[in-house]
Amino acid sequence: MRPDRLNPLFVAADSLKGVGPGLARPLERLGLTRVRDFLYHLPDRFVQRRAVANLDEASVGENIVVALTPVEYRASTGRGPLRVLASDAAGNVCAISYFGRASYSGKKQLPLGETRWIAGRLDQYGQMLQIVHPDHVTEESGAALGQLVEPVYPLSEGLTQGRLAALIHQAVAGVPELPEWIEPGLFDKMKLPAWRDALELAHKGEHGPARDRLAYDELLANSLALMLVRNANRARHGTPLAGDGHLRARIDLPFALTGAQTRSIAEIEADLAQQAPMLRLLQGDVGSGKTVVALEAMLIAVEAGAQAAMLAPTEILARQHFETLKRMATGTGVEIALLTGRDKGRAREATLMGLHDGSIPIVVGTHAIFQDAVQYRNLALVVIDEQHRFGVGQRLMLAQKGKRTPHCLAMTATPIPRTLTLAQYGEMDVSRLDEMPPGRQPIDTRVVAVERMADVIAGVERHLATGQQAYWVCPMVRELESEDLAAAEARYAELKLRFGDDVVLVHGQLRPEAKDAAMERFASGGAKLLVATTVIEVGVDVPNATLMVIEQAERFGLAQLHQLRGRVGRGAAASTCLLLRSGALSETAKRRLALMRETQDGFRIAEEDLDLRGGGELLGTRQSGDTPFRVANLEQIRRLLPLAHDDARLLIERDGGLTGERGSAARLLLYLFERDWGVQLLRGG
Ligand code: ADP
Ligand code: MG
């Protein structure tokens, strides 16, 4: 149960004054559903304004606060802007311009002859100075001068800076004092502000120590939760599994295992032989051959007389794994069953019976395999194929609940830098498939300016004419979700004009059945071109798809681009990946795309990407979706995570864990960052 003193922070957003049904959606899109979320919605940056006595003191491009007196309205004909001419104390004239609907408020805000304090950016329009859509217009100087430094928050459609800032202010004003959870020595040494102060400071202006404090808290909560779970796992009992190899010897493999595969299998085999349940992550790029490693692991369980289950994130992937595993395992005579939410009737009953009486030793499926109706005779190993890039660790740990704890193997295709592995998976054991099977064709990767769209489409047409298939990927980021969705649909419409029924569209807002149907049409070859947002990221395997076009490639994280690109180059034919980029790219963005062209080594891309962005990263330029953290950015993760990790260890090993004074403060922290699964698991076990 959440400690009572945190309750005010977890009430719904609409308990804040001014939040009605109209704001619920826009807030939700930013992840702001409870009061707590507003506290941690930190500014991207701050606008700094200078108060000037008159416009002679200001330069064009500068953000200023100045007193101006409107002298004339100049409305343009048609749909042009309203310009309010206003003069300063020295007699300089400046236009304050309002476009579109804003022109209604222009006249109201600026009555002729009455002096107002105006905050905004000074621009030039022809020969005239101009301020377009002033940020603030106030009647007295006090309010205006209070706006010299102002936060700029990430927004969503339907929200304004002012609105959001007021809500955040309200939320911050209501936070309780909480006891300190950071180790006192470290706290002093780092000169951090207390939690409540840090929240206030971080929203008020650029304040490194305050941002660090909040980031540190998030990292500490994460480290602590992972460590609690790891320790709880060590104390549990699983079933030691020792196989004699008789089934593994009969796997049908047309190839020799790579060194990395052999090593990983040995590591898993050693874990399974122990009483303590395995908690291991198998990390390997797309195509590195994780499936056969999973099969070997499952056959060890079967050789030892137990059952194994493999959890796939989607129906399609479950089927694909099922087919592949069945093919490889034919010679072993081991029965493998498929179980998904779609299976009904007699076939489903037969599978359930077989799992119950143990006659089916291996099952592959979606989360349906863990429903209450499914009973296993002797389930001793669970393999989890990745779904959410950052959910694996947590889910794997939750799978440890219950009396008999199965061994767990999680598989992820996201190569992440070593620092981040620690952040996401804590002290889980890791096996890395850092060696690709021989004979993979390099993917010809090119960066193409978006102006050459017509050529690109013609290229796709030639490609499809050869009988091969292609992917067309459009970006989808949360901040611009509706625009992005519209862009993806527009592209689909355009391509459909050209390619007709050969094109299908898949995106995250389709109903699951519609999505599956479209994917299946593509996978079976019925459709030739798949237009998609990033939902194809995980695991789709269509070897005949040998071309991928990625629009606005610069907006993707490199890990994501790498993952996407891994969808092609799976068959014998040569594959191509076209990264379409927009005109104006920063140096870093150019280097990042160049890196994609240069290498296909996921681990290298992950490390260099972290270097490229980690160093020069500014406030607010963090890329969402690249880490499991909302507050800490990459640079902070690198700098603060080792400290947080040691701090968590001290708390657990020296300072009595969650008991004692600091321990109960740390418990608050876990709930605050919703890492309370750590606490719950502790109690449950
Ligand atoms: P992952 O799941 O890691 O993306 P898969 O297990 O699907 O990769 O393997 C990708 C392809 O490589 C499959 O066609 C598989 O049969 C093949 N493969 C796996 N291991 C080897 C190997 N040691 N030598 C050659 N091919 C391999
Ligand atoms: Mg796979």
Model description:
The protein has 685 residues and is an alpha/beta fold. It has 4 domains: 1-44 and 161-175, DNA polymerase, domain 1, CATH 1.10.150; 47-152, OB fold (Dihydrolipoamide Acetyltransferase, E2P) (Beta Barrel); 258-433, P-loop containing nucleotide triphosphate hydrolases (Rossmann fold), CATH 3.40.50; 444-599, Rossmann fold, CATH 3.40.50. Strands 12-13-11-14-15-10-16 form a 7-stranded parallel beta sheet, with helices on both faces. A 6-stranded parallel beta sheet has the order 17-22-21-18-20-19, with helices on both faces. A 5-stranded mixed beta barrel has the order 3-4-5-7-6. A hairpin with a 5-residue loop joins strand 4 (82-87) and strand 5. The protein is globular, with a radius of gyration of 29 Å. The model is unreliable at 615-625 (pLDDT under 50). The structure holds adenosine-5'-diphosphate and magnesium ion.
